[in-house]
Amino acid sequence: MTADAAIHSIREVDSDGTIGLISSEEYPPYARPPLSKGLWTGDEGIEDVDLETSNMNLEMHLNQSVIKIDTDNKKVYDKNKNEYTYQKLLIATGGTPKKLPNIEEEGIIYYRTISDYKKLRDIVDKNENFGIIGGGFIGSEIAAGIKMYKPDAEVTMIFPESGIGALIFPKVLSDFITDYFRQNDVNVLTGESVESIIKEDKTYLVEAQSGKKFKFDTVIAGLGITPNIKLAKEANLEVDDGIIVNKYLQTNDLDIYAAGDVAIYHIPVLNKFIRIEHEDNALMMGEIAGKNMAGKEIPFDHLSMFYSDFFEYGYEAVGILDPKLEIVEDLDESLEEGIIYYLEKGRVKGVLLWNVWDKVDEARGLIAEYGPFSSKDLKGRINILTIH
Ligand SMILES: Cc1cc2nc3c(=O)[nH]c(=O)nc-3n(C[C@H](O)[C@H](O)[C@H](O)COP(=O)(O)OP(=O)(O)OC[C@H]3O[C@@H](n4cnc5c(N)ncnc54)[C@H](O)[C@@H]3O)c2cc1C
Q1: Averaged over 26-53, what is the pLDDT?
Q2: What is the CA radius of gyration of the chain?
Q3: Measured from the CB, is residue 94 less than 6 Å from ligand 1?
Q4: Which candidate, 146, 199, 217, 349, has a CA 20 to 30 Å from the CA of 322?
Q5: What is the pLDDT averaged over residues 357-377?
Q6: What pTM does this model have?
């Protein structure tokens, strides 16, 4: 998604310079968010996810993984020993899904790509019983997606936290969402870590640390990603838990840029180096990286938003969502909508807009203010009254 955004923005600045895209995947760039949402509800079809990169007058090398960057000679090499030269290079390698430790079983779907979607869709049409490991974005969206697509499917979620989204939501909201999934006939097993998975005939036998055992036709895992930094590291680019870039999105080799899920950058308003694994960040970083590669000098200072949807609910959010921060809740009594503020020393660091729409810019404005804010200042500060 980052590469596509960069290609579109290079073309806004430079209509005829040569552009090459090298991707490990067999499909041209596509939008990932619908893979766990609109493609299951029928709101989007598979033809809608293509990002139309191929209209941008470029050379596309699909099914090719880059294995080496030679920064001295400005060349990259793929696994088939093809050699490419560059003047400016963008590393937008995203991340690889984390695997369950010590579990070798091959049929588990670590959900991330369009190929995973096609495979799962085919399986959902045939099978009845699905085990989903992970209670974050991917796990919850896939559970809801399968249930909406096939209401009589048996869907079970297993994860070690106390509720869905517990790593980003305060307990009251995480509990509410967990109950809501249960009301929608998803079996949610909290506080359970998967210890082993063995395939017996056509069934996966899953054993949790507690000793409990479960049987599923299909196992899907959404455990987060590890950023793909190996190439950068081997090329002596500065890395940490991602590739470190300056405000122009350049690495320590100024002709090499990094952006999207793989990049770490400093966000002045949060005073933090951060790596963000979300669409808005990918699109905005890609856009600025592309323009800068084509000769502009635009600093990247966008505070990106993110969102998720499941069943009838959804949210948008900005900044740091960490329930260990000081929390101010401004939720309605039924918990169906409202705002959660995450504060550090009286300053707003993150805002969750729970079933509240079109308020992202106001949330960004609050994060930019120094404060200090108290609970009294924040309650009602973002007006969520809706006109029906
Ligand atoms: C199912 C799903 C649902 C999502 N839903 C949301 C959502 O609702 N809201 C939201 O904000 N975000 C969502 N995201 C996150 C969002 O899609 C990512 O943040 C975004 O795709 C990141 O873009 P990227 O280009 O940095 O990485 P990616 O999209 O992962 O692209 C990286 C590309 O690099 C390729 N690559 C890696 N290594 C090499 C190599 N050595 N050589 C060649 N190619 C290589 C990969 O094959 C891949 O094609 C979702 C993600 C998934 C998987």
Answers
A1: 95
A2: 22
A3: yes
A4: 146
A5: 94
A6: 0.96
